[in-house]
Amino acid sequence: MELSKRIRRPKWTDARLLVGAVLVVVAIVATYLLISAANATTRVWASAVPLVPGQVVSADDLTVAEVNLADIGDKYLSADAGFPDHSSVRAVIAAGELLPASALAPIAELEGRIVAIDVAGSVPTVVDTGSLVDVWAQPSSQGLDDEGVDPQQIVTSAPVSNITREVGSFGVGDGARIEVFVASAELADVLGALDGNSVLSVVGAPAEVRAESGQS
Description:
Residues 42-105 form the SAF domain. By secondary structure, the chain is an alpha+beta fold.
């Protein structure tokens, strides 16, 4: 009889049981919130076409992508916040890439301008909108006694914003007009080479490797 009195079922009011029950509830809620956060998505801007510095970016150039909220933080532009007017990008954004917030800039703040360059020779087929090119200038010969001057590279890794091949003034199937974003430090050399006394050529440049590509 004495033994049965000593072995009694614990009461729910026992402090240790209450603490244990609270910890179980907290663990369940924390797990639920963690799973919910992992599955949560948000709408951000992505490029529908290649975006190039100097080009005014509009909503028509963009598309909306659903991405995992845990992966983005504040790195990318929310599609629910609209898009700033008169904005461009600081570097080439390939079609399909998410648009990093750090890549956006007011177009007036960019250190460079888009310049149209007429190229008399053929242009590599790999050169297209969004690709990078080097621009070379070869002064025109002034006569039979002119030994000529070696071509000089006047632009390095310039992003192409537009290209029109087979420009008629150079003959059928030859020549192109290429619009490239030229850095301010190289503008003087480019404008000087556009005086008609130089033959300009472009070659494809290796793509830049960005530490943060923006790929989802």
